[in-house]
Amino acid sequence: MLQQVDKGKGKRKNRYFKMGICWGSPADNPTPSTTGHLSSVISQTTSNSATSRGSNISQNSGFSASSGDMSFSNGQILPTPNLKIFSFAELKSATKNFRPDMVLGEGGFGKVFKGWLDEKAPGKSGSGTLIAVKKLNSESLQGFEEWQSEVNFLGRVSHPNLVRLLGYCWEDQELLLVYEFMQKGSLENHLFGRGSTVQSLEWNVRLKIAIGAAKGLSFLHTSDKQVIYRDFKASNILLDGSYTAKISDFGLAKLGPSASRSHVTTRVMGTYGYAAPEYVATGHLYVKSDVYGFGVVLVEILTGLRALDPNRPSGQHNLVDWVKPYLSERRKLKNIMDRGLDGKYPSKAAFRIGQLALKCLAPEPKNRPSMKEVVETLELIESTNEKPAEPRNRSARHTTRRHGQQPLHRRSSLAPKHEAGTAYQNAPRVR
User: Fold this and answer.
1) Where is the Protein kinase domain (predicted)?
2) CA distance 63 to 66
3) What is the pLDDT of residue 398?
4) Of 121, 151, 180, which marks where a domain is finished?
């Protein structure tokens, strides 16, 4: 449930809604607040001085600096952040003075702007390197803590399936983060967007995205200091020009348990519909809590439906609760597959992914597969190279409703107005 936080005697009570940021294209209509983020307000705010924050950005890093430069499959973790420090003036120029028409998204942290970096022609539109600049709202309650977490975690990891944090800016009260620009935007936009400029993803592309995202999580889980991502969802999976999936937004990343423990206990922070049940109920966070979130995203990829949607009929608001019975039988699974696929998908492969999703969604963490096992299973499915089926002629009744649903609106509430597929989009989180 949503927490109401009393910020002190005599001060007003505040219900703190946190929305992740989208980067790519302007957006309208905020995502319904029922998909949310649970937790209490952070104690440290951006009113602290630069001195009190200190220059030791990596001081609270979750990794052991003495561990050295550690290499893993196609990725590495550095002992300290390796980031460029940008000046505020440089980013102001890159975003044309943070002009409103450069806004790609907005959330509790602040706004994200599109920008160009070009030393030779800093003011020339369309030239240089495209970037996404996340700028802290001075009134944000979550700001500095998550800004620091992004720097400490994402600033130290390098992997093909993790979004690159290029650098940061910290001048006076200004806090900014600079990321690589992801041309195709978020998985969320492609699955739930609508309009003539938003095209449904083909089956092979969906499978490629699932594998890439799984590899990103597996990398984090298998590092010497296990990292629990804690907020895995479709809006945090971004896509480059060739639809390579990259995980973004490390504001909630947490170090995994020590060898002598199975979990860490922490404030409950995540996104409704994706957060693992044991974590929501007890605050006990397991590495396999991320696996549950991955299972939810697999179901979204299969169905083209949001994890939570209060506009669906009663009993169907929570996607996982509703479709679980359909995942165990191939005949039933057919009834909930995304209509955007137009029947063009391999039924055996879809069923195997449904089975994998069920394993990831197991109530007990110990019964869920590791992300390494998930990657292996998905790659095995891909290697079978089963050809997508050709759809049969459909009757009119199949083109209107299914399972008593209202007609599906295939648009994210944060869907871009222009440049479809270029938005970094995150569902709202409530702390």
Assistant:
1) 98-381
2) 9
3) 41
4) 180
Would you give the distance in Å from CA 121 to the centre of its chain?
Answer: 33
Please tell me whether 254 is known to bind a ligand. Answer: no
Q: How many CB atoms sit inside 10 A of residue 336's CB?
A: 21
CA–CA gap between residue 147 and residue 165 (Å, rounded): 12
Tell me the C-alpha to C-alpha distance, in Å, between residue 279 and each of 101, 220, 269, 394, 427: 40, 19, 9, 43, 19
The pair of three-digit structure tokens given for residue 395, joined into one six-digit string:
């009757």
Give the HSE-up count for residue 395: Cα atoms under 13 Å, Cβ half-sphere: 3
Q: Give the model confidence (pLDDT) of 24-60 as tens digits.
A: 333 333 333 223 333 322 222 233 333 333 334 444 4
Distance CA(216)–CA(153), nearest Å, equals 13
Q: Is 231 among the residues known to form the active site?
A: yes
The pLDDT assigned to 260 comes to 73
Q: What pLDDT is attached to residue 35?
A: 30
The last residue of one of the domains, among 180, 200, 225, is 180
Same domain, 60 and 18: yes
Q: Kindly report the CATH number assigned to the domain that includes residue 418.
A: 1.10.510.10
Low-confidence ranges of the chain (pLDDT < 70): 1-73, 107-108, 119-127, 139-143, 195-197, 391-431
The total domain count for the chain is 2
Q: Given 6, 69, 118, 231, which residue is catalytic?
A: 231
pLDDT of residue 156: 85
How far is Cα 65 from Cα 306, in angstroms, rounded to an integer? 39
Give which of 417, 418, 298 is closest to 358, Cα–Cα.
298
Instruction: Let me know whether 292 and 321 are in one domain.
Output: yes
Full domain range(s) for residue 74: 14-180
What pairs with residue 178 in β-bridges?
133, 167
Going by C-alpha positions, the residue among 269, 292, 112 that lies closest to residue 185 is 112
Q: What was the pLDDT predicted at 226?
A: 87
Per-residue confidence (pLDDT) for residue 220, from 0 to 100: 94
